[in-house]
Amino acid sequence: MVHADESTAWNPLHASFAMQRINHQDGFSIDGACTNGAESYFSRLRRGELGHHHHIAGPYLVRYAREAAWREDFRRVDNGDQVYGVVGLAMRCRPSVDFCGYWQRARAA
Question: Least CB-packed of 5, 20, 31, 101 within 10 Å?
Answer without folding.
Answer: 31
